[in-house]
Amino acid sequence: MRPPPAAAAPASRLNDHLIARSTPSFKKVALPVKIATWNVNSIRQREGHVLSWLERNQPDILLLQEIKCETAAFPAQAFAKLGYQAEAVGQKAYNGVAVLSRVPFEVTQRTLPGLPPDDAQARYIEIRALNTIIGNLYLPNGNSGGEAGYAYKLGWMEHLAQHAASLLAAGEDLILAGDYNVCPTEEDYAPGALPPEDALLRPETRARFRSLLWLGLTDAVRAMRPSGQIYTFWDYQAGAWPRDRGLRIDHALLSSRMAERLIEALPDRMERDQPQPSDHVPVIISFEP
DNA sequence: ATGTCTTCCCGCGGAAGA
After folding, report:
1. For site (Transition state stabilizer), what residue positions does UniProt give (predicted)?
2. What mean pLDDT is reported for chain A?
3. Distance separating alpha carbons of residues A195 and A197, to the nearest angstrom
4. Which candidate in A179, A188, A219, A250 is catalytic?
């Protein structure tokens, strides 16, 4: 409940500062910057989930993957009502990424630099907000399309590393977040949740993920919790969620200054218990302002 | 490996991708 306006309140030296903090005309107390990433597995199926989650969690920026709709079909108006501006890069049926932000931003990329110009897969959007470059990525799964499909994944990761290197060389503060489709270590998937030859954990996949870390990027979730089972995805099949047979494949990598500001980074596990959930849950990262 | 979900279409069920 909002306290009465300052003018109507009895003058009290003791609680003046409390009134000031909660009165809109005064400058807000600086709150942590809250950024989240979420593979929603179709925004049209999950619009209600996202709206409800935004209201409950109040992130400054939410990065979405697998919106599975064309750019023009993204339901931007629904999010505008909650104060979030939307920018989407979509395609028919598959893939697709979008940014929702309640802070001002500009789009800096709509595709991953370095990919062939005829690459039509909607997997990357990047913005500048809060003096930070924020890349939202949906990395190829790599299990379909045979060896060519897997080679596409590896190539994509190499272009991502090159792009990250050039941003860091330019001195940018950087967050690269999204669905990486990579289990970085043996701790990052439940025993039996994946066959040993799966593209999410092949050695070549992990080597390319490590090459991102070697640029000086920090895995936000592991910076807060260096070991232990932490998952962000549970397959719809075979009772993966009730058995907690999950994967940690949604990540946020941070440049050094962002890592210094890191307060917390954690998946919102309970979102997986919603009716008709996405198979991924949001990962929330908080920074000192 | 598959007990599911989402999309598309030449649909009225099945393929493909995850």
Report:
1. 181
2. 92
3. 6
4. A179
For residues A5-9, give the mean pLDDT.
41
Cα separation, A175 vs A132, whole angstroms:
7
Q: Count CB-CB contacts under 10 A for residue A81.
A: 8
* Number of other CB atoms surrounding residue A20 within 10 Å: 13
Which CATH number is correct for A33-287, 3.30.2420.10, 3.60.10.10, 1.20.1050.10, 1.20.1250.20? Answer: 3.60.10.10
Overall average pLDDT of the A215-226 stretch = 98
The verdict on pTM exceeding 0.70 is yes
Residues 95-154 of A with CB under 7 A from strand B: 140-141, 143-145, 149
CB atoms within 10 A of CB A54: 20
Q: What percent of chain A has pLDDT over 70?
A: 90
- CA pair distance A244, A223, nearest whole angstrom: 23
pLDDT tens, residue by residue, A195-204: 999 999 999 9
> Tens of pLDDT along A52-93?
999 999 999 999 999 999 999 999 999 999 999 999 999 999
What is the layout of strands, in order, in the sheet containing A97-101? Answer: A85-89, A97-101, A61-65, A33-39, A283-287, A262-267
> CB of residue A93 closer than 7 A to nucleic acid strand B?
yes
